[in-house]
Amino acid sequence: MNNFTAIAECEGSFGPVAIGCNDRFDFTLLFEQSLLNIGPSAILLLVLPLRLRQLFGQRRKVLQHPLNTAKIAACIVFGGLQIALLILWAEASLSTHVSIVASVLGVIDAFALGILSHTEHTRSIQPSSVICLYLIFSLLFDAVQCRTLWLLPDLHSLAAVFTTMLSAKLTMFLLEIQGKRRFLFATLRNLSPEATSGIVSRGFFWWLNGLLIQGFKATLSPSILYAVDDELRSGKLLQKMNRYWGQRKGKEEHALLRAVCNTTKLAFVLTAIPRFVLIGFKFSQPFLISRIINYVDGDRGSYPKPIGYGLIGATGLVYIGNARAAQCADDCIAYQLSMGFYQHRLFRFITMIRGSLVSLIMSKNLDIDASSAVDSSAPLTLVSTDVRTICKSFEAIHEVWANPIEIGIAVWLLQKQLGLGSIGPAVTIIGTHTSRI
User: Fold this and answer.
1) 336 CA to centre of own chain
2) Which residues form the ABC transporter TMD0 domain (predicted)?
3) pLDDT tens-digit profile of 198-218?
4) C-alpha dihedral over 269, 139, 307, 414, to 10 degrees?
5) What burial class does residue 342 get, using C-beta atoms within 10 Å of its C-beta: 0-12 exposed, 13-18 middle, 19+ buried?
6) 8 Å CB contact between 99 and 92
């Protein structure tokens, strides 16, 4: 009984590491339920009304299909298992003061996912990014808690139901990532596969497989290439550009730059997110390598074997997100999942800038009286050389804010290893970058 009380007190502490909890290498139950359960649930419920508001303004886009029924059925099963977990947690001998709260939120999540899944399926041409992101992180976090529940005494029935719930959640994820291109209304089936692909397909560039297969079998022609995404169409970009240019022309300094930024501001933000994630992946490697060296050197802590397995798992996660390919003949080509997201969004952003500028220039060129024009070739120069130069400069726009962050972290890491010796490299870096300005 004393041992059970000690375990209950340990699991009821925030931790996060479960030091002294039944002699295991793990997080405490309170930490897992507070951050890994309640955190994703709270974010989902905050995003839900915003996304539903967007979707309710859209018309129906998908035909009736059993896939929608399967999604709803999976949500119902998931909700039933969440209710069962709520009952079991209410009767459990070992729980924390947030166990009931986390379970109630799980039931609400099931209800919310059912509504959002049906609405996304009928009113969106893509698999739901909100649901897929929630399920990806939730599956990872729930797998951690599932392991903990199986290791705790007197919770095996609850652990079995939790494992079944995890399987239902995985089924929901597999259903949600399915594309809906075949079920779209006939007027929408000519859209680009990129426009109808979900976040998983776009992240791994699976939507390009069909085009690559066609290119392998035969020579590609313009008729075979995919349609341009609606966001990249010059007509839509010109409407925005004309509106912002008309508001600022002749009234403000740098009016053209401001008009371009306003036209592409959403694309800029969507590009900044993967660039920020890339910083994390970049510096996860030195932290990981440092910890592995310490582990091999003898600093293995109280649980040497579990820590070793944890380092193996961490290595897998780091190099899945930041995977380096084998050495080629001349140099090493870095294939990075996070870099793939960033480069994809970056060049969409640059394409939108090019489309906005070229459309505006050509539109204004049509308004010029040819007889009064001093140099009729000037607009063509703007379209070719100047626009190319502008777009080239925007390729490094996110490095302006990302590089100082990376330099700061790098100098801090050097300071931890070298102490005052890190001042020399820091001065060199600052001097080099200052001289380029």
Assistant:
1) 14
2) 23-156
3) 888 888 888 888 888 988 888
4) 0
5) buried
6) yes
226 closest CA partner among 211, 213, 212: 211
CA distance 43 to 61: 27
Cα separation, 110 vs 173, whole angstroms: 13
Alpha helices in 124-249 (DSSP H): 129-151, 156-176, 193-196, 199-203, 209-217, 234-248
Q: At what angle do helices 423-436 and 399-418 cross, to 10 degrees?
A: 160
Neighbours of 78 (CB within 10 A): 25
Phi and psi angles of residue 353, each rounded to the nearest 5 degrees, phi first: -65, -45
Answer whether 227's CB lies under 8 Å from 190's CB. Answer: yes
Rg of the Cα atoms in the chain: 27
Q: What values do phi and psi take at 264, rounded to 5?
A: -115, 20
Q: If you write DSSP's letter for every residue of 408-437 in order, what string do you get?
A: HHHHHHHHHHHGGGGHHHHHHHHHHHHHH-
Q: How far apart are alpha carbons 143 and 137 in whole angstroms?
A: 10
Residues 241, 64: Cα–Cα separation, whole Å: 38
Contact status, residue 364 vs residue 238, Cβ threshold 8 Å: no
Structure tokens at 237: 């970009």
How far is the first Cα of the chain from the last one, in angstroms, to the nearest whole number? 69
pTM: 0.82
Instruction: Convert the pLDDT of each residue in 19-74 to its tens digit.
Output: 666 666 677 888 888 888 999 999 999 999 999 999 988 888 888 888 999 999 99
- Dihedral angle of Cα 260, 262, 263, 267, to the nearest 10 degrees: 100
Q: Is 127 helix (H, G, I), strand (E, B) or coil?
A: coil
pLDDT (tens digit per residue) in 343-374 = 889 999 999 999 888 888 888 777 765 555 55
Residue carrying the six token digits 């060129």: 365
Residues 6+ apart with CB under 8 A from 46: none
Q: Is 333 helix (H, G, I), strand (E, B) or coil?
A: strand
Tell me if residue 371 falls in helix, strand or coil. coil
Pick the closest to residue 344 from 223, 228, 202 (CA basis). Answer: 202
Q: Which amino acid is at 391?
A: C
Quote the distance between the C-alpha of residue 227 and its chain's center. Answer: 25
Secondary structure class of 361 (helix, strand, coil) = helix
Closest by alpha carbon to 88, among 100, 98, 78, 76? 100
Confidence check: pLDDT of 302 > 80:
no
Assign 191 to helix, strand or coil: coil
